[in-house]
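Query form — protein Amino acid permease-associated protein

QUESTION: What is the three-dimensional structure of this chain?
INPUT:
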Amino acid sequence: METGLKRDLGLLSTMAIAIGAMVGSGIFILPGVAYVAVDGPAVVLAFLIAGLLVLPAALSASEMATAMPEDGGSYVYVERGMGPLLGTIAGIGNWFMLSFKGALALIGGVPYLVFVAPWLAEYILVIAVGLAVLFTVINVVSTKSAGSLQFAIVGVMLVVLAWFVVGGSSDVSPERAAGAFNFGSDGLVAATALVFISYAGVIKIAAVAEEVKDPGKTIPRAMIGSLVLTTALYVGTVYVAIGVVDIDGAIAAGSLQPDGEGAIMALAASATLGQAGVVAVVLAALLALASTANAGLLSASRFPFAMARDGLAPSAFEQVSDRFNTPVLAISVSGAIIVVLVAFVPIDQVAKFGSAFQIIVFILVNLALIGFREGAIDDYRPEFVSPLYPWMQLFGMASGFVVLTQVGFVPLVGAVLITAASVVYFYLYVRPRTDREGSARTELRRNVGEAAIERTRELFAEGRRYDTLVAITDETPRQTRRDMLRVGTDLSSLQEGSVTVAEFEQVPHRAFTAGDTTSRRDEPPDWTHEMPPLGTLDDGPATADGGVQQTDGATDDTIGVDEDGPESTAATQSQPIDFRTVTTEDIGPAIVEFASFEDQSFVVLERRVEELHELYGEGINEHVLKNARCGVLLVEDRGIDRVDEIAVATDRGVYDPEKLLVADAIAEETGATLTLLQTIPEDAPAERQQVVQEYHDELRRILTVTADSQILRSDDRVAGLARFANAADLLVTTTERRGVSGALLGRPGDRLVDVVDVTSIMVQPAGKQRPGLVQRVVLDRLFG
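ANSWER: The structure tokens for Amino acid permease-associated protein are given below.
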């Protein structure tokens, strides 16, 4: 997209933006504060650990920046990957947090000015506001000028800090520096959280990616190079500072505040470099804080600019000046925000909120990369690829959550409030003006569907034999027994599988026995009399011997005892039906063991409603669902007459191939039509419905029977599905292990079966595993 922005920033200027955004209050103010927090020299290790924890986000941002070299940085990646809502949160949060950090930097040099010129203290506010206006004008006039100024400031600062490290290393007291890398220090994680904001500028290079020369090479080199250089600079500088300054003594003497805040670097320079060193360090500190404000303004102004291009902010923010080739309004408003913050808001408190939100942004950046990679988007072709994927990103997310717990209650509340305000803004302004979702979510959803289609195609093409166990108890009603057997025979008719009907009789515990389960074969029980023809689920006349007969009289298909024993073979279908009685002390384990020993493909069980809300103990259904290695079908029987339409429902995600196989087998035997039912949110974008429709169309090509498709827009998934499922003759849906939350609140599949009036079959595929925490909490929620 041509925007009029010039690619003026080379490698050194781009690195200068990142270093200038990082090296400011982080190195000149925070060492003393972090020393107090960690209660010792381990503050050096805290800076090192923080740099390592930032690395995953830097690698992720580098990769995505080379694929999408557009202004906006982390906002662009989150918005493109996970949609406008999270993009709005990232954009607004970054915009304001960078403004807060810039404002803090402008007044953060107070201790250093007072150190050399106490009389200037009363003019600090005027000077800070004046600098804010000056930097705004510079950024409006030319991005290149801003980059050149940043390069000059950072150059001076690096020279002074290098002199400080080299010249002061010989004066480091081993006693004061002892324990600088002690992992066992109390408060180490809290100190790491405190200094984390020192590295917040590392991914700000991506915010001006559209103005970087040769972004495919320049951006990753600048981002990783600036992080490595800044981390080494932090570690070396802080090591020398705490090694030459008696911080406890300085606090006692009033040179530093009780929390460690103050001109600690000036005190260190006075102790090792003399008056010339003090002047140089104070000058570097002021330049560093000024560079932080300049880089913060430069980066912050690009967020409303990028958001406006995506329709998430008023279009005026994306207008580029014909005279200056810069987004004047975006820069001016950002500069005005900084001026207001400097003049009226306690910036030191607001800056702490920035640390918390930057951690959240880093987590989102790592997650966005996972979305792009797993989405396999055709247009996503980065020139730089993050190493150790996805472990690097997972480590960055996990460590981010750990550090986030240590930033303190007030910063967390601030981050929550900013997030809430962003959500309100999204629904009031953005949502009515946009109808799309993140491309990574769309592509990932499409790819998940394609993978499910391939698994379904392979399952239908296998043509393997399916043996079915119909497990009943003395509590199973006669009609339900017959309907369960009909389901089992229809399913096992695929490739002439067998059906075993086993009645499990529970007996009291018996001591001193060799075993608690016995099995015997039986003749067909009396409840099989007057059964309808197998494979039709329709009522039909009984034969003289108590079996069943085809209604047209063309063939004789009976359940009975053949000449060789109780195992019966149907004359036309060659389906062996074996009747068993199993005596056991515990029915659930007995069913699982029987199905495993007999190598059954499916177990058909009566759905036991009374077990659904059991908080303690484990009923028959739950035990079999949890432990069976084969597929499980729970039958909620409400009577079956003719079956002309079968509804196959899923409340979210893809259909389990075995659920489709069960529905297809019954439809094939009964001549019924299948209807694929699936819900999406009412406000889901059009591309999401298109992806689901494409998925349904592919499934209809695989199924062996006629199938229709219904995609329902409803925020109440159960109600939406029930409205259409009630019109069918049979519902096939999914079951799952319930757990504590399911016992308390119920599961969507159970709620759906409870509200419909038709017989339902709930299918759990063989080998179904409970998804892991990351899958359930993160990926499923974000990528749907």
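ADDITIONAL NOTE: The chain has three domains: 11-434, 441-464+638-784, 466-629.
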